[in-house]
Design goal:
The protein is mostly helical and about 90 residues long. About 45% of the residues lie in helices and about 0% in strands. α2 crosses α3.
Length: about 90
């Protein structure tokens, strides 16, 4: 699957729904794995900008989707990452 650049929270609902459908999961099945009701997952998909980072990461894990953070304009490189030493 190609990479998707997300610049606004409004882009998340369509992407989350698309990833869920590509994974062959219904809202009910995804909600059960997430530990919420189907109605809660539906609201989460519609209002993804209001979801906590922890819940979003949990959902992405269920959907087998990685979250990659990159400085604007930077391209992935192999080897040692440049940036803050944390």
């Amino acid at each position: 699957m190609p990479d998707f650049t997300v610049r606004t929270a409004e882009q998340l609902p369509a992407l989350l729904q698309g990833f869920r459908k590509q994974a062959g999961l219904t809202q009910a099945a995804t909600a059960m794995r997430l530990g919420v009701t189907q109605q809660t997952l539906s609201a989460l998909e519609r209002n993804a900008e209001k979801v906590s980072a922890a819940r979003l990461l949990q959902l992405l894990s269920i959907l087998d989707v990685e979250l990659v953070l990159r400085q604007g304009g930077a391209t992935p490189t192999s080897g040692t990452p440049s940036g803050p030493n944390w």
